[in-house]
Amino acid sequence: MESSRSRKRARQDWDGAGAGAPPPTERAVVARGGASPLWRDDDRDGHYVFDLGENLNRRYKILSKMGEGTFGRVLECWDRETREYVAIKVVRSIRKYRDAAMIEIDVLNRLAENERYRSLCVQIQGWFDYRNHICIVFEKLGPSLYDFLKRNRYQPFPVELVREFGRQLLESVAYMHELRLIHTDLKPENILLVSSEYIKVPGSKKNSQDEMHFKCLPKSSAIKLIDFGSTAFDNQEHSSIVSTRHYRAPEIILGLGWSFPCDIWSVGCILVELCSGEALFQTHENLEHLAMMERVLGPLPEHMIRKASSSAQKYFRRGARLNWPEGAVSRESIRAVKKLDRLKVLVPSIIFFLVMLILNLNYISRLQNKNMHFLVPQSYLLLVLSATSKRNTKHRNVKFKNRSI
Ligand SMILES: Nc1ncnc2c1ncn2[C@@H]1O[C@H](COP(=O)(O)OP(=O)(O)OP(=O)(O)O)[C@@H](O)[C@H]1O
């Protein structure tokens, strides 16, 4: 079962076994100058064990650990050849993650076919296989939007900035969808600011001594998408469960099959979170999740309930309405759902219309055609966004124009 606050997606059940033996030549290499360190075993999860300052093959020097995910660790490295900092994802030496990394490389190369990707998605600079670890070299980016929220003790971003993030996010997703790719794991952790620079401004939350808190704001609003390890090709068979729980679309939970719209749902959830500071659907259980969706957005469309898979029918009474609150596992669960406000109350009105449109488009598209391509609605959303952007810019003398402040 997923832990209640876990933000990590439960990965699909892969079939691979552990890693094979390391290439014999590597064992003999001794750490000296620009050479590789002595061979050492991976940790029990298959992660590469390293010390800071060591080499990752002769070209890259390891400077720090930038992040960790299900697939592996991301290390900040110095590229001796280009003389620039890079972020290298060192994938766990387990067959299933190695295989998934090769798919990620495939997707990244596909994305890189068009120049447009440079400003929308993280750029891949290359990859190599080192001591049975696939290493993917990326341009180094700044912190994720989640890192920023956390650093600010979950104080929300200003609405002007959220709108700017939303516009870029929709552009990136539209670009992926044009290439018939579905990200499937959009979340604030997978959206990185391009720059780490920030400014401090007075925040809204005060502490117990009534002292004013400060909050950090990025100097530039430019963002890029990362983590294409779960990206699916539209025309390939899809696994039944995708997305990290909080950002998972209703059609996935109901077993209706999923396609491009599941990314759009995640975008809606992300925008609300950036405006409110907290994940919209903080749950780890399907029925509670559906009840939360109904609380925020109104009843699930009848056509979706009708087609729910046999295993999802148990969430409904006589196949017609959600078995809620009768089916709740605890009073606490009922309270958690009740505590949620309608979308209108949750987010400023300027974002409300956009999010409402996004989340409802997900429903509408299912009504029309489950594999409907999302280009048309996305262009429409972008139009709405730029229209509201202009209006608001006039009114409030917005500082987030041109992606920098
Ligand atoms: N290009 C980059 N520049 C800076 N930091 C990065 C970069 N790529 C990844 N990171 C950091 O490393 C973390 C893990 O990266 P990523 O999400 O790609 O790994 P993962 O193993 O696929 O994660 P998940 O378990 O979410 O699938 C990110 O959340 C981010 O903090």
List key phrases describing it.
disordered N terminus, disordered C terminus, Phosphorylase Kinase, domain 1, 405 residues, Transferase(Phosphotransferase), domain 1, binds adenosine-5'-triphosphate, single chain, alpha+beta
Poorly predicted spans: 1-6, 8-33, 366-377, 389-405
Return the average pLDDT rounded to an integer.
82
Measured on Cα atoms, how large is the radius of gyration?
22 Å
Which ligands, by name, code or SMILES, are bound? adenosine-5'-triphosphate
For the record, give the distance between the C-alpha atoms at the N and C termini, rounded to a whole number: 43 Å
Number of strands: 14
How would you characterize the largest beta sheet?
6 strands, antiparallel
| CATH homology-level superfamily of the largest domain | Transferase(Phosphotransferase) domain 1
CATH topology of the largest domain: Transferase(Phosphotransferase), domain 1
Total domain count: 2
Task: List the secondary-structure elements in sequence, H or E.
Answer: HEEEEHHEEHHEEEEEEHHHHEEHHHH
Per the principal axes of the C-alpha atoms, what is the gross shape? globular
Count of discrete alpha- or pi-helical segments spanning 4 or more residues: 13
**Order of strands in the sheet with the most strands?**
1-2-3-4-6-5
Instruction: Determine the structural class based on helices, strands and strand pairing.
Output: alpha+beta
Q: Approximately how much beta-strand content do the residues carry?
A: 15-25%
- What is the CATH class designation of the largest domain? Mainly Alpha
Helix content: 25-40%
CATH architecture of the largest domain: Orthogonal Bundle
